[in-house]
Design brief:
CATH superfamily: L,D-transpeptidase catalytic domain-like
Largest sheet: 10 strands, mixed
Shape: globular
Radius of gyration: 24 Å
Helix content: 10-25%
Strand order of the largest sheet: 1-2-5-4-3-10-6-7-8-9
Number of strands: 10
Distance between the termini: 65 Å
CATH architecture: Beta Barrel
Strand content: 15-25%
Order of helices and strands: HEEEEEEEHHEEHE
CATH class: Mainly Beta
Structural class: alpha/beta
Number of domains: 1
CATH topology: L,D-transpeptidase catalytic domain-like
Length: 225
C-alpha cells in the first residue's frame, strides 16, 4: 500500500510539472507590428525577404529593402516616435526604414503651438513642397478633427476656427495653418541626428529624396507614440 501511495504521489508531481512546462511554452510576448526582435525573425534568405510576426490579427509584415524605388507605388508611411523610425510599407512589405528626428519635446501628443511635440494620429499628405525651408518636404493635414475637438474643449481655439478645420477635413482640403494648435506639420529633410524640430518629422537629406519621390498627395501617414 505504501508503494502504491508513493507511486501516486510521484505520478501527480510529474503530471503537475508537465502541465507547468506546457503552459510556459505556450506563452508568447506581445510584439509591435514592425518592431519584432531579431530572435523572432526567420533567417534572411537570398532574396532579401524577412518574415516578421505582428502583434494582432494582421498578416505578417515582410521586409524587402531591395525593392527598386521605381517599384514603390501607393505606399503608406508609419512613424513610431519612441523608436525614432519611419517605415515605408507597400502591400504589407516594409520597403524602406529611415531614422528620424522629432520635436524638442517628443513625448506625448501635440496640444498647442510651441510645445515642441510631434502630433500623433492618422494623417495624409496634402502637398508636396519641392523647395521648402529644409529642401524637399511633405505637408500633412494637421490640425485634424481629433486635435481640433480637444483644443476646442480646452479653450485653445475658437468655435469659428474649429468649424474651419472641420470644413477643410470634409472637403479634403488644407486646414488653417496658423491657429494656436501649431503651424504646418511637415516631413522634411535636414537631418535625423537628434530631436531638433518644432514638431515636424526630419529625415536625412538622401532619405527625404527617396521618400519625396515615392510619396504623393493622399499618401496615408500614421504617427504613433
Amino acid at each position: 500500500m505504501q508503494v502504491l501511495i508513493l507511486q501516486g504521489r510521484f505520478a501527480g508531481a510529474f503530471l503537475c510539472m508537465f502541465l507547468f512546462v506546457l503552459s510556459a511554452c505556450s506563452v508568447q510576448n506581445p510584439d509591435s507590428r514592425f518592431g519584432a526582435s531579431k530572435s523572432s525573425e526567420k533567417k534572411q534568405p537570398e532574396n532579401g525577404l524577412v518574415q516578421r510576426q505582428p502583434a494582432g490579427d494582421k498578416e505578417p509584415v515582410r521586409v524587402n529593402y531591395l525593392t527598386a524605388l521605381a517599384d514603390i507605388v501607393n505606399p503608406e508611411i508609419y512613424i513610431y516616435k519612441e523608436k525614432r523610425r519611419l517605415y515605408l510599407i507597400q502591400s504589407n512589405v516594409m520597403v524602406r526604414d529611415y531614422p528620424i528626428g522629432l520635436g524638442s519635446h517628443p513625448v506625448g501628443d501635440k496640444e498647442r503651438e510651441r510645445d515642441g511635440r510631434t502630433p500623433e494620429g492618422d494623417f495624409v499628405v496634402r502637398r508636396k513642397d519641392p523647395v521648402s525651408r529644409f529642401n524637399k518636404a511633405l505637408l500633412l493635414n494637421y490640425p485634424d478633427k481629433k486635435h481640433a475637438e480637444l483644443a476646442l474643449f480646452a479653450g485653445i481655439i475658437s468655435p469659428p476656427e474649429f468649424k474651419e478645420i472641420l470644413t477643410a477635413a470634409e472637403h479634403n482640403a488644407m486646414p488653417p495653418l496658423y491657429t494656436k494648435l501649431g503651424r504646418q506639420l511637415y516631413i522634411h529633410a535636414g537631418g535625423a541626428h537628434k530631436d531638433w524640430t518644432d514638431g515636424a518629422i526630419a529625415l536625412y537629406d538622401s532619405d527625404m529624396e527617396e521618400l519625396f519621390t515615392v510619396a504623393s498627395t493622399e499618401t496615408p501617414v500614421h504617427i504613433r507614440p
